[in-house]
Amino acid sequence: MKPIQHIFVSNSERMLEGWLQAFPLASSFSFERTSLVVPDAGMVWLRLSTDATVAQQIAKARTYFSTQALVVMSDMPNDLEALAVFSASARGYCNTHAGVEVLGKIAGVVSQGGMWIGESIMQRLLSAPVSEMVLDALSTKPWVGKLTERELGVAKAIALGCSNKEIALQMAITERTVKAHVGAIFEKLQVRDRLQLALLVKDS
Hints:
Elements: E1 6-9, H1 17-22, E2 27-29, E3 43-47, H2 54-64, E4 69-74, H3 79-87, E5 92-95, H4 100-111, H5 119-126, H6 132-136, H7 149-159, H8 164-171, H9 175-189, H10 194-203
Parallel strand pairs: 1-2, 1-3, 3-4, 4-5
Helix pairs in contact: 7-9, 7-10, 8-9
């Protein structure tokens, strides 16, 4: 299998030591360069600066790297910035100075199609206010028709931030059955994890 090409994008184009230790064959890129041979695949690590908004920086990166998985790095990560990052369809968010082991884990998760997101940010996203009235209005959404009544109930509960155990208690079924429903929902809606499912429900 061909190794993943890692490209680190920053204003200075300077590679930090930790980045090179994690990915010895990685390359660097800055927006000041006028030409670049862009690979069709790979993973892009964007170091945020303070001279533009998160959305603007990600949009700029996407003009060069439109298909690659994008991980955003921040010198001072925080939950609000993370929400902006994931709203712009990035696949991961981490500290610019994350350790070698962490960088490797992020690369592994993202390369497999997953999302790297901190626990506090995950809870914030899943616990964002969503009313039962909003959930009841989902019947008009085309993806809802792909789910059984029980699966839709599980999807709504996930959007409310419920764990499998809590869903099992609410529906008077076993956790094993809940897991089976969750797996079926992921497959039918083509989502990879609970976060994507929750965002799909809430965006609806």
